[in-house]
Amino acid sequence: xxxxxxxxxxxxxxxxxxxxxxxxxxxxxxxxxxxxxxxxxxxxxxxxxxxxx
Length: 53
Description:
Largest sheet: none
Shape: flat
Radius of gyration: 15 Å
Structural class: mainly alpha
Low-confidence stretches: none
């Protein structure tokens, strides 16, 4: 999936009115489903590594 397809998908979600409920469910899922500390460290490190300089 390239960037233009991803952008088009996001636009369809916003127009259909499902963008906010899906985002809310994703946020609640991240708060409810605990991740092991090892995965949290991997995600944190990768987010720093991929930051554009």
